[in-house]
Design brief:
There is one protein chain. With about 140 residues, the chain is mostly helical. The chain has a domain of about 55 residues. It has a two-stranded antiparallel ribbon with strand order 1-2. Helix 1 crosses helix 2, helix 1 crosses helix 3 and helix 3 packs antiparallel against helix 4. The longest helix is centred in the middle third of the chain and has 33 residues.
Length: about 140
């Protein structure tokens, strides 16, 4: 991930025609988040709203990936592609892992039917087993 960040800053610097330092400062200022106290509540503010950060990061990764592929540099393209795939999979992985971790406890929650729940994990197969009595 860190190496991919280094690569993305380099590609961004090439497109802007500046050095890595200036491009890194520009990206750092763009993605920076700062604590802010408003009306007695602690908040975190930044230049980009929360829904815009992830698509912008993905577009920078896609730009870098296409740039590396156009230049014929396969190793940096591979690192960028793996990072892009990981960032695309993180929300699904987080939801799946969270549901799997909470699945044993949701069965015992009062007032809830875990099998009919909207949060039930569809990849888990549930079944009931009963022993047969010997007939002989």
């Amino acid at each position: 991930m860190t190496y991919t960040g280094f690569l993305v800053v380099g590609v961004f610097a090439d497109y802007l025609g500046t050095g890595r330092f200036a491009a890194g400062l520009l990206l750092g200022a763009l993605f920076a988040r700062f604590p802010w106290i408003s009306n007695g509540r602690l908040r975190v503010v930044g230049l980009l709203p929360k829904p815009a950060r992830r698509p912008l990061i993905m577009s920078l990764l896609a730009l870098s990936l296409l740039s590396f592929l156009a230049r014929g540099e396969h190793v940096p393209a591979l690192f960028t592609a793996v990072t892009t795939a990981f960032l695309l999979a993180v929300p699904w992985l987080r939801k799946t892992a969270f549901n799997r971790l909470l699945a044993p406890f949701s069965r015992f929650a009062p007032g809830r039917n875990a099998r009919n729940s909207a949060n039930a994990d569809d990849t888990v197969i549930e079944g009931e087993f009963r022993e047969k009595k010997d007939q002989g």
